[in-house]
Design a protein that fits this description.
Elements lengths: L4 E2 L11 E10 L3 H10 L4 E6 L8 E8 L2 E8 L5 H9 L2 E9 L2 H10 L4 E10 L2 E9 L5 E6 L12 E2 L11 E10 L5 H12 L2 E6 L10 E8 L6 E8 L6 H9 L3 E9 L2 H10 L11 H9 L6 H6 L3 E5 L2 E7 L10 E8 L9 H15 L3
Parallel strand pairs: 2-5, 6-9, 11-14, 15-18
Antiparallel strand pairs: 1-12, 2-6, 3-4, 3-10, 4-5, 7-8, 8-9, 11-15, 12-13, 13-14, 16-17, 17-18
The structure holds fe (ii) ion.
């Protein structure tokens, strides 16, 4: 009945080396207040800033950091600015998934020669801390990948940014690094974007989920996961599938007005502690009914965590051939039902929680129904 196909690549096929996720930039309506939210709710620390006070008269950007994760929150100061147009159309959303590379110019040229569309040509930014080279390629919707070469830079973030500390003393919630970033694309577009990552970046297809894997009584979606050679970058791509009611992917596309980033999964090495703190900080998670826990241990077997705590915090558990994982999903972090976060702890498992899809999607459907979008 289940049709999971895992394709294990024998060779490294990357078009160019990617060292990791460099930063994720959100275009938002009010970066100043969003920065406060990510500090108080998620425990990020404000480290850098760019705006009129630093000589940048078009927009403000706040850089937040927690362990290896860097978020940039940006708002425009002018109604006709492209940042504001992006915000008007999409609401708060992810504009840039930045990739840390060895050589931005040659990576950019390689990507273009393999079929990528340019978002912007290589530029060198300099200040007293050295230089950074950036270049951009387009991906689904209006999202871009900025290629970041920072080996000759020792500053706080990028040239043009100044150190900034918050008056608020934020407390880390134990979020470590970006595990995967998921894109939602329009009906019939999933294979096109999977092919883009294979052709342009040399990524391999890791897993395919069809609509039989990911369906409930009412709705369905399809998903394929691509990954780079070292596995640091994993991009699942979702598209809606025919169901009796409206797919959550369609709801996203309707409200985002196009393809875009659906969720960012962030790793923690102590999910019980992390989620307990996030809940105390007011982060709102999807609710899975208690009966989920009636059968979960039969399905996943022994776990080291206290199951009563797992249940109290409403965390989901799944197992694959390599181990198990614990995960939980926030509700959308803006009024539009678009971007949300996943918190994940891997105990060996390399997969994405397929055993939880049904419970998860039923939880999403309950929210869709409340919004009148099912
Ligand atoms: Fe995920």
């Amino acid at each position: 009945m289940q049709t999971l196909t895992e394709i294990k690549s024998q060779t490294q096929t990357d078009a160019f080396p990617i060292l990791g996720t460099d930063f994720i930039e959100f275009y938002v309506g009010n970066a100043k207040q969003a920065a406060h939210y990510y500090q108080t709710a998620f425990g990020f620390e404000l480290i850098a800033y760019k705006g009129p006070e630093t000589g940048n008269r078009e927009f403000c950007s706040y850089v937040l950091k927690q362990n290896k994760i860097r978020f940039v929150l940006t708002s425009s100061l002018f109604p006709d600015h492209e940042i504001n147009k992006h915000f008007q159309k999409h609401g708060d959303g992810v504009k840039v998934l930045a990739l840390w590379v060895e050589d931005a110019k040659s990576s950019y040229e390689t990507a273009l020669s393999r079929g990528a569309e340019s978002a912007f040509e290589p530029i060198k930014l300099q200040d007293e801390h050295g230089e950074v080279i950036l270049a951009g390629i387009k991906t689904y919707g209006e999202t871009i990948h900025t290629l970041v070469e920072r080996k000759n830079y020792s500053g706080i973030f990028l040239p043009g940014f100044v150190k900034k500390e918050s008056l608020l003393k934020s407390v880390s919630t134990g979020l470590n690094y970006v595990d995967h970033c998921v894109g939602n694309v329009e009906l019939g577009q999933m294979n096109r974007w999977v092919k883009f990552y294979q052709d342009v970046l040399g990524f391999k297809l890791l897993i395919t989920f069809d609509d039989k894997d990911i369906s409930t009584e009412f709705t369905a979606l399809m998903s394929k996961v691509v990954s780079n050679g070292n596995g640091y970058i994993k991009f699942p791509i979702n598209e809606p599938a025919e169901g009796r009611k409206k797919s959550q992917i369609e709801e996203y596309i309707d409200f985002y007005h196009g393809a875009g980033v659906q969720h960012i999964a962030i790793e923690t090495d102590n999910i019980l502690k992390t989620v307990d703190q996030l809940r105390k900080n007011g982060v709102d998670f999807l609710y899975v009914p208690d009966n989920y826990y009636d059968t979960v241990m039969d399905r996943v077997g022994h776990i080291d965590e206290n199951i009563e705590e797992v249940k109290r915090l409403n965390i989901l558990v799944d197992r694959d051939e390599d181990g198990y994982l614990l995960q939980i999903f926030t509700k959308p972090v803006q009024d539009r039902p678009t971007v949300f976060f996943e918190i994940i702890q891997r105990r060996g498992a390399k997969s994405f929680g397929k055993g939880n899809f049904k419970a998860l999607f039923e939880a999403i459907e309950r929210e869709q129904e409340l919004r009148g979008n099912l």
